[in-house]
Specification:
The protein has about 90 residues and is mainly α. The chain has one domain. The chain contains three helices and no strands. It has helices at about 1-40, 50-70, 75-85. The longest helix is centred in the first third of the chain and has 38 residues, at about 1-40.
Length: about 90
């Protein structure tokens, strides 16, 4: 009886770690996707983008990707279900 509860706890923590890893991967993927999409937009005006503006855009992309990942993305769910099945 005691061994079953330990086994359940180990499985649960592994499952939670897998979910977290899938969420983190989805956030990183979305971040780089946003950055790549931003590079395709033509620059406005005659002035170059300042270093601060570039950093702000990167931070914005990171936060949006993190929020999307925390709320759940289909990418994160698909990764989780596929990896869970193959474990």
């Amino acid at each position: 009886m005691h061994i079953d509860s330990i086994s359940y706890e180990l499985t649960t923590s592994t499952d939670e770690k897998l979910k977290k890893a899938c969420e983190d991967f989805a956030a990183i993927f979305l971040y780089y996707l946003f950055k790549a999409m931003r590079r395709t937009v033509p620059k406005e005006g005659m002035l170059k983008e300042s270093l601060g503006e570039g950093m702000y855009r990167d931070m914005w992309a990171y936060e949006v990707a993190k929020l999307a990942s925390e709320r759940g993305t289909e990418l994160g769910r698909m990764l989780y279900s596929e990896l869970k099945r193959n474990m």
